[in-house]
Structures are given as C-alpha cells and as structure tokens.
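Appendix B. Raw example, untouched.
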Amino acid sequence: IAYLAGAIPRFPSSAELKNDLAGAYIESGHDLVQAGKYPEAQKAFRAALAIPPENAGVQTSALVGLGDCLSRAGNNIEAIKYLQQAVSRDPKNAYPLRVLGAVYIDLKRYDEAIASFQNAIAIEPAVASYALLGESYRLKEKYDLAEESMRDALRLGPTNYDVYVMLARVYFDNQKYPPALENLQKAIALDPKLEYAYYLMARTYAKLSDFPRAIENQNILLKISPTADNYHGLAALYRLNKDNAAALEALRKSIAIDP
C-alpha cells in the first residue's frame, strides 16, 4: 500500500528554500525514513514543525513526512492525527489525503480510506488514488467497484504494471481466473522481473489445476528471488502435481536457506 501512495515528495530545492532551516530538517527526515531510522526521522520532522513556516507548503510537507514516518514505525493512530492536520492546512492538496487513505487501509478502516481517496480524486485524478480506491473496494469484497477504479487508474496510466497486478488480484479474489492471468501477463510484459506477478500467476494456474504452468511460474519467481518461502511454495505445487520427489528436493532447498 505505501509504495502506491507514493514516495514522500522532496522539499523544493530552489535557492531560497535550500537555505531554509525547516526545509533542511524535512530533507533529513526523508533520508532517515529511507534508512529505516524512524525515531531520528521523527525528531527531524518535529524540529521542522517547531520552526515558524515561511509558507503553508513547508508545514504540510513536515506534517505528511511525520505522519508517513509514524505509520511506517507502526504508530498509525498518531500518524492519522498529523495527516489530518496536513489535510486541514492544505485542503486543495490531494497528496496528504492519499497518504491518509493508505493509513486507513492499514487499519482496515476501509470506508474512511474510500472517502479519503474519493476526495483526493476530486482534487486531482491520479493513478495512485484510483488504484488505492480500487484496493479499498477489493478488501471490502466490492469487486465490481474495485475493477472500475482499477480501470480508471489504467486509463490514466496504461503502462503502470503495479495496477495490472492489482486488477489481477481483484479478479483472483472474485474467482475470475482467466482475466486475472491476462492482466498478470500484461504486467510481466512491462516488467519481466516483477516478483509478485509470477507469484500470483503460479497461484492462479494452481486454482485452474494447471500445475505444470504453476510450477513453471514459481520456478521463474525463484530465479528472481530464491527465498525459503518461495522454495516452500514450489514444494507445495509439486505435491499438488503428485511429484513427491521434486517436492522433497524443494523442501530441502527451503530448509537449507532457513533451517
């Protein structure tokens, strides 16, 4: 969910703002978030908020940065407080609404997520907002609305492979496996190393009882990401294909990676 909300926008790097102390703290906060140093990042964003802003954009950037940081650190409730402040401070900015909606998804507060994404779309229609709206509908098992939102996203971004995978997941959950495969193939055509697409492709072929193709896609996934979990998934597919010797070998490889 977070990657679709989008990377936190960097503070504008004009000559004036480069010298701005609040901007420097915000930049530092983003760098610390990327490094996974959330307590230090929170301090940087709070330091930015403590400085009287030269413009509303600086304050909004700090609030969204702090909210995103808190969410990544697992403190979604406090994150919502700061993101709501960002929305109130800059009500014509779609980005804080989108980040807020992503936090609501994490909390399984899907109706509030839907409202946030709809408000963001009303301000600025964007691929991420439509895709996250579709994801919210999928999680509520409103598959027709989810498909509609994903297709709106693809109309704006027809080469966005993540959205093709998300649309495939809508079809998969709704037990519509052929269109799920069709969209996964489109995603892979755009990015041949898209791990989750191969993972879902293998699961989809397994649902269709086409175990040889499921195994083929799981093996492609393993070439990209040879993890213990992926070998364990391969073993499960071999068992379904009644190839116990191959299943045992895959399990051995899984155990060798993660005893």
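End of appendix B.
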